[in-house]
Amino acid sequence: MNENGNQALDLAQLMARIREDAEKRKSNSPVDASAILTDLLKTEGRFATSISSSATSLGASSFPALALESEFEAREHYQLEDLLVLNDEAFVRNAYRAILKREPDDSGFAKYLENLRDGRRSKVDILTSLRFSPEGRLRDVKVSRLDRPLLFKKLYNVPVLGYLIERLVGIIRLPALITDHRRLEAHLTARYEHLAAQINVRDASFFSRLDESDANLSERLVKAIAELSELYKKVADLHHQQLKALIREQHEINEDRNRLKADISAQLDAIQDQFKRQAAAQESQAAELHELSTKMDTSLQKSRMELVLQERRLSLLLEEARKRLPQPFEPDQMQILSTEKDHLLDSLYCSLEDQFRGTREDIKEKARSYLPMLRDASITTDIVDIGCGRGEWLEVLKEAGLAARGIDISRVMIEDCQRRGLPAAAGEAITYLRSQADNSLSAITAFHFVEHLPLETLISFLDEIARTLKPGGVVILETPNPENILVGACNFYLDPTHKNPIPSQTMQFLLESRGLCRVEVLKSYPMTSAILKGDDEVAKFVNHYFFGPMDYGILGRKV
After folding, report:
1. Are strands 549-557 and 469-480 parallel, antiparallel or unpaired?
2. Which of 61, 264, 516, 548 is 20 to 30 A away from residue 444, measured at CA?
3. How buried is 430 (Cβ within 10 angstroms: 0-12 exposed, 13-18 middle, 19+ buried)?
4. Which one of 135, 157, 179 terminates a domain?
5. Which of 231, 208, 234, 233 lies closest to 221, judged by CA?
6. Coil, helix or strand for 478?
7. What is the pLDDT of residue 548?
8. Mean pLDDT throughout 6-27?
9. Into how many domains does the chain fold?
10. What is the mean pLDDT of residues 391-407?
11. Share of the chain above pLDDT 90, in %
12. Alpha helices in 157-173 (DSSP H)
């Protein structure tokens, strides 16, 4: 090696290689090469001084270095090709100099050189390993187009899929590999031609020096150079053998590629057949589900019609019974008839709730926003939910570990709650509250209830809340927000049992007028699908009155 790290050859190395080759050929060659070397080195005494001076003048320092690779130039940024043009020891050594900015350590140099020579790792693998090592990341030398090989290396490590991807990439890169082989052949040929040119230059200089010294020494050195030419021919023959091996390897790769293509094609055909079978099965299942859905819709429609007819027959029967009886009904009988008449539309109202209130999970998710208010007041028991409906809020309280019970006048909804294991009973709100003792309840809640009440009944309801709450107890009410014009003008009237919308200011006033304090209005569930952008007055007005909260909650506390 010269001081730039390139290969160099001096006269002593040349003679050593000639001796080594001569020893190898000694047993098979009729020419005694060792005798020639002996004669070359053991000249008569009269040539000793001249040989010594000739050897000194013909030393490595008298000739330019015999370089097989171009001189490497260190930079802060490289193209991948700048490093791939180097080979063998020059590649490994200059890879360390370029990426880690230092000379290679012996163990790392030996490991990478061995991996490169036996084909276990490519040049790109070695560059990737050095660049993304901790020391390489610290140096942070830029090598263009080196990230892609790192990505493919990670993909190759994926079980099964990595193998298929590696094979597929190998197939795709086969033309590039062939091109690389051809480029390698041209590169080696160019290197050998360059070596031959340098040898010829050395020959000319060498022979001119030999002519000045001794003709006999010149003749023997010519023989040695002839042997070197033979070595070069052998190297060329070895190169051709390597090319033949590469051609055989390419042929094997082509065969592997064809087999892999056949395997992949067969697997794709099998997957397509499986997909077709699954699609056919899904189509059959979809047809069966559609038919079943149609039958269920028809059956449900018939059930609804039959229920309406039964309700109508029962109503006519009650009216006819009232007309035909000679004596008027007793007060308790009238109460029973009136109560039964009130429940004729329970199933209809339950269907209305299912249609317009939203799914059970949606309502539960919204209701969970009120749990922190109970926790802040340290309330865990004696919670009553008025108008509990399908029991979403009761279920949220139960999941949170709070003790609560519900009241509703709809028998259908109470039965639904009880089937779910929720503590609910049928009853009228004011009647139930009047049956409770003073200061006996920790919290009273009512979701979408107060908008069903006339003003006088609403006042009575609030009075009973104020009477039955414990000191420190809370009331939580939720009702549609009429400040949202879509709610106040349309959505509110989807439920025909609603009396009239109640603005939040009115509801706050009514709670405070009945003795509740620290009343808070809680706007919730805003529409966000079409909010106008901007901070101008028009945008604020439209966002507030058209896209504002659709409901509001209100929280009151008892002193």
Report:
1. antiparallel
2. 548
3. middle
4. 157
5. 208
6. strand
7. 75
8. 52
9. 2
10. 95
11. 23
12. 161-172
Q: Name the band, by pLDDT with cuts 50, 70 and 90, for residue 34.
A: very low
CA count, 13 A, side-chain hemisphere, 424: 31
Q: Which domain holds residue 127?
A: 69-157
Q: Which residue has the higher pLDDT, 81 or 480?
A: 480
Contact 369, 524 (CB under 8 A): yes
Whether 26 is in a domain gets the answer: no
- Residue 475 DSSP SS3: strand
Cβ atoms of 417 and 404 closer than 8 Å = no
Q: What does the radius of gyration of the chain's CA atoms come to, in whole angstroms?
A: 49
At residue 429, the pLDDT reads 93
The DSSP output letter for 103 is P
Average pLDDT of the chain is: 75
| Residue 366's CATH number | 3.40.50.150
pLDDT of residue 300: 60
What beta strand segments (E) does 68-217 contain? Answer: 77-79, 142-144
CA 75 vs. chain centroid, Å, equals 37
Residue 221 pLDDT: 73
Decide if 352 is inside a domain. Answer: no
CA 506 to chain centre: 51
Q: How many CB atoms lie within 10 A of CB 132?
A: 14
235-288 residue pLDDT tens: 788 778 878 888 888 888 888 888 888 888 888 888 888 888 888 888 888 888
Least confident of 121-130, 235-244, 290-299, 384-393: 290-299
Pick from 399, 407, 402, 405: nearest CA to 379:
402
CB atoms within 10 A of CB 84: 15
Q: Please give the backbone phi and psi of residue 477, each rounded to the nearest 5 degrees, phi first.
A: -120, 145
Write down the pLDDT at residue 43. Answer: 41
Q: How far apart are CA 119 and CA 280, in angstroms?
A: 50
The pTM (predicted TM-score) of the whole model is: 0.42
Q: Which stretch of 19-23, 222-226, 291-295 has the lowest confidence by average pLDDT? A: 19-23
What are the percentages of helix, strand and coil residues in the chain, rounded to 5? 65, 10, 25
Asked, for residue 98, whether it belongs to a domain, the answer is: yes
Q: Are 552 and 488 in contact (CB under 8 A)?
A: no
Q: In the listed set 140, 157, 174, which residue is the last one of a domain according to the structure?
A: 157
Contact status, residue 22 vs residue 37, Cβ threshold 8 Å: yes
Task: Judge whether 402 and 378 are in contact, CB under 8 Å.
Answer: no
DSSP symbol at 437: P
Alpha-carbon distance 450 to 386, whole Å?
10
In sequence order, what are the beta bridge partners of 477? 446, 554
Per the document, the length of the chain is: 559
Q: Residue 60 pLDDT more than 60? A: no
Half-sphere exposure of 531 (CA within 13 A, CB side): 12
Burial of 559 (0-12, 13-18, 19+ CB in 10 A): exposed
Rounded to an integer, what distance in angstroms lies between the CA atom of residue 330 and that of residue 340? 15
Name which residue leads in pLDDT, 124 or 420: 420
Domain membership flag for residue 202: no
